[in-house]
Design goal:
The chain has about 170 residues and is α+β, with helices and mostly antiparallel strands. The protein is about 45% helix and about 15% strand. It has one domain (about 1-170).
Length: about 170
């Protein structure tokens, strides 16, 4: 009879363990899903930031290429000239407007042109001359995260609020 009582105690202890382990599996799954989602969103945000930075660098390169062949090029102010969202710089743009138009036309969807600032530096006063190193900086002042509670200035993982692309070429 004591054998049956021992066997019954053993069976009851096994069933209690199974119930406890179900709760443990739920907690482990919740933690694992959180970590996997954090990694997935982190990779996505990093990819978006790199795409945007590459686009800004390409726009700066395009602007620098235009700047080195533009007559009457002058330095643009720092922190920069804001782009016209419509990319409309008149029927016959000249000087720095040619550079702004080239930059504006090379920015792609997803970048608000109102939030882009352009700085042109390196021109001899007041205008650029041959062999001046012309630097064009394109800055996006409002890069925002898709998940701001996780990434960004107020999130768990710090992320930059502004991104910039730079290019330097020799004036011809």
């Amino acid at each position: 009879m004591s054998n049956n009582a021992d066997k019954e105690d053993f069976m009851n202890s096994q069933s209690y363990r199974r119930i406890d382990e179900k709760g443990q599996a739920l907690v482990e799954t919740a933690i694992a899903i959180f970590v996997i989602l954090l990694l997935a969103f982190g990779i996505t945000e990093f990819g978006r930031a790199m795409y945007t930075k590459n686009t800004l660098t390409n726009a700066a390169r395009t602007g620098a290429r235009q700047a080195v062949v533009t007559l009457e090029l002058t330095n643009a102010p720092d922190p920069g000239e804001e782009l016209d969202a419509s990319c409309n710089y008149g029927a016959n743009p000249s000087g720095n407007d040619l550079v702004y138009m080239a930059i504006c036309n090379s920015l792609f969807a997803g970048i608000k042109k109102d939030d882009v600032f352009v700085t042109i530096a390196g021109a001899s006063n007041p205008k650029a001359v041959t062999n001046d190193a012309i630097s064009v900086t394109v800055t996006l002042s409002t890069f925002s995260s898709v998940v701001p509670k996780l990434f960004g200035s107020g999130g768990m993982v710090p992320f930059p609020n502004s991104l910039k692309g730079e290019a330097t070429m020799r004036y011809e």
